Amino acid sequence: MDIQNIVPDQSIALFVKNILVFEDSESSETILPFFADGYPGLLFHQTENGITIQPHGKKMPTFFLYGQTIKPINIHVNGHFQIIIFQLYPFVLRAFWGINPREINDSCHYLTTGPENDINKIISNILFASTIEEKIRIIANLLLDYFKHKSNKLDFLVREAIQYIIDSRGIIAIKEIAEKEKLNIRTLERRFLRETGVSAKQFAKIVQFQSSLNQLETKDFSKINDIVYANGYADQSHFIRVFKAFTGVTPNTFGKI
User: Fold this and answer.
1) First vs last C-alpha separation in the chain
2) Nearest 5°: phi and psi at 76?
3) How many domains does the chain have?
4) pTM above 0.85?
5) Order of strands across the sheet that contains 41-47
6) Where does a domain end: 92, 121, 152?
7) Residue 148 confidence (pLDDT) above 80
């Protein structure tokens, strides 16, 4: 399987964190694990037999919006496939699609219309595009259309709060963010939850987990306590508890998978 990690064009970087491309020309079964990362997204797939999300057993449409992934999931694919994921900064869900972000946590939203064009026409254009670059351009243009029509509904203060948390790898205190934004903590949390589907505290916890997961996957440590203290956990038991909550297994077990 080939995996590409593409930095989004500057024109969409305000609301797109990353673009992931998964491709495989083999006819075998592929299982792609996904864990909490703080980012909802748009997913397009071109496959022989579709994709199924486990443990929900849900067969997914060709193009859909998914919310915060909090519990671990696997995408099951049979046969050759091409999957494109636009990871979105979570402050766009309510503004762009008019949905309550909390309602699609660990779930998805089926797209029916774009801001200017019928979504089926857009899907058809993506399917018939001959290159990955062209498919990405079509999806990027769709998001730019949403931005053009809905940018006045975006809460840019929440976007700033998201960036503070990302830059600190989830270790920053929410009180410190509230002070930077000249808000009380309760107001910040209310606005953050309204726009993203999770509280600022929960988002920080997810970002902190992702930082530790990356360190574990890249084996950038000598002993487990290196990860614990590099990522701001109180102690090893705290880290193990959080890690297991997001992955279903302990760090030690995960490292052996």
Assistant:
1) 18
2) -105, 130
3) 2
4) yes
5) 2-6, 16-24, 81-88, 41-47, 63-66, 108-110
6) 152
7) yes
